[in-house]
Each structure stands twice: as C-alpha cells, then as structure tokens.
TrEMBL record:
Residues 15-342 form the Enoyl-CoA hydratase/isomerase domain. Keywords: Hydrolase, Isomerase. InterPro entries: ClpP/crotonase-like_dom_sf (IPR029045), ECH_dom (IPR045004), HIBYL-CoA-H (IPR032259). One of its GO terms (molecular function) is 3-hydroxyisobutyryl-CoA hydrolase activity. GO terms for biological process: L-valine catabolic process. Its EC number is 3.1.2.4. It holds the Pfam family ECH_2. It catalyses: 3-hydroxy-2-methylpropanoyl-CoA + H2O = 3-hydroxy-2-methylpropanoate + CoA + H(+). Transmembrane segments: none annotated. Coiled coil: none annotated. This is 3-hydroxyisobutyryl-CoA hydrolase. Gene3D superfamilies: 2-enoyl-CoA Hydratase, Chain A, domain 1.
Amino acid sequence: MSEDEILFETRGHAGIVTLNRPKALNALSHGMVRALAAQIEAWREDDAVRLVVLRAAGERAFCAGGDIRRIYDQGQAGDPHKVDFFADEYRLNVAIKRYPKPWVSLIDGIVMGGGVGISVHGSHRVGTERTVFAMPETGIGFFPDVGGSYFLPRLRGETGMLAALSAGRMKQADALWTGVLTHAVASADLDGLLDALAESGSPDEVLAAQARTAADLAEGEAPLAERETRIADVFGRDTVAAVLNELDQVTGADADWAAGLADTIRSKSPTSLEIAFRQVRRGADLDFEDCMRMEYRIVSRILEGKDFYEGVRAVLVDKDNTPHWTPANLADVREEDVEAHFSAPAGGDLDV
C-alpha cells in the first residue's frame, strides 16, 4: 500500500479518515483495511477523539468496493492466501459495528460493496445528492458480503432482498427512506459539516441542525416508497424462482418495471442468486458476528468455484459483459451445491 491511499488526522474532537484513491474510485486495498483497523483501535483509547469521521477524496466515488481485481489475480495464480483480505475486511466491519464512539460516514458519490461495509455499520450515514448505493455482487458471481447478511434484511420492507438480488442502485432519497442513510445533506455543505462535527464532537447535535429530511430532498418522494407494497409482496416470497414468477405475473402500471427487474435478475449468476437469497433470509435472525462468520464460510467456498472468476473476467478484465455462468440456469443449481457454501471451511470459522 502506498502511504497516501488512506489518510488519518485529528481535528478538534474528531479522528478523520480520508480514503484517497480517487482514480480507483477509492476501492479498498488490503493495506487500507489493515491501516484503518489499526488506526481506529488507537483512537478507541484516545479520550481526545470523541468521534470518527470517514470521508473520501474525489467527486465520483465514496468507495466503489474492495480491490476485487487483485483477488481475481490471486485466484488465477492459485494463491492460498486469497481469502485473507476478506478475513481482515470482515473483522474491520465488526470493529466498526461495535465501535464505542460515533462513526460518521460522509458519503458523496458511489458507495458499493466494501465501501458499504465501512460506512453502513456506523452510527451515522450522511449521504449527498450524488450518493449512489448498490450491492452489485451477484453480477460478478459473488454475494452481498461485508455485513450484507445483517443490514439488508433490516432495511425497510423487502428492499434489502430487492437490492441483494438485482444489484439495483439507490440514490439519495431511496437510500434515506430504506435506512441505508440516516441523514441527508447537500454535497456543497460537506466541508462545513465536517468542521462543525470536529468542533462540536456531538454528531446528533450537529446533524439535527444541518441535515435535511426526506421531504426536503430535491428528488422528492423516494421512488421505492411508491412501490413499497408491491416490493414487499414480490420479494417476500420463499424462493428466488417464486420471486421471478411473481415478477412475471405483474400487470398494469408496474408491468414494465417488473419485466425489467426480472430480466436484470436473470442476468446474474444463478448460484449467486441462490446464495444471496438464503444469506439475507438467514441473516435476519442472526447477530452481526454470526452474520460475518456465515459470510466468511460463503466467501471461502466461492473463491474455490468458477462464477466469481468468470464474472470478474467479464466485467473488469475483458469487459465484454457477457459472463458464462456455471450452471447457466436457475433450475440447474443444485441444492447441495448451494448449501455447501454455508458449511464451515477447512481452515475453520472466522475468529471475530
């Protein structure tokens, strides 16, 4: 890791973290994960630091995820340590979830995958009009990890399952309405907000004065809110196949929306869809640590399979966007193959 990929400073009462890989959309490297984990552990014991503020450089992305291309290269080379990144990342997610001080993420731009993992589990998630949230993993033969098992089933209604299966994007209003964000501000106000947070040390007090409500947002009512009942009905089904069948039956004003959504879901890895569906359902009844242990089981198995490498090849390497999934059809995914992802790996469960 180059020294400037992630920056740390203290200002007033705040420990400030800046993700500093704007050309790479602030994607998390293994070095960044380890450096962040070490720094927040030091700040935990520092009485001068009353809160942590996480922000990012550049205008396009807060953090577009983990450095998946590196994991792909490790897998192609047969590196037995390819799972180590995820072990450290998941432990960092736990540390953030259990952090004893306020954790304020200033989300301006794209936040996906690993970027969600270091922000959504904190106490305050502040998003701007440029916020674009997604968990796009099923499109690369992966699964919505970094605590997706925990936070997705706890979003409003069945919007978490919708996000998990479709990799659909949410803008500011939807993210606020579903619970991905806790507060909304204008991008132009972020610098002033950071100064106020550092000076006050009390995010609740500052955000109560500066944040906007859903009714204030330029987008108006969240688009997902308009289909809350429909989404709950469709994505509350017992299987992926039943979800798709229900989408196929939608008529009337929502017909085009449903048809497009069904096509999108069918383009994802069938195996990933089955894994994602089960992890979200099971995660609803697990605590955070057990969710992370489950996700470590899943990732340990996925990295030994085919779809992840094929998905990354299609999207990030060759960029032909025509992945060839194995198996290619949902009906051909075997029950025992899916369930194998939920069994303890050979090296044992994640120690959290």
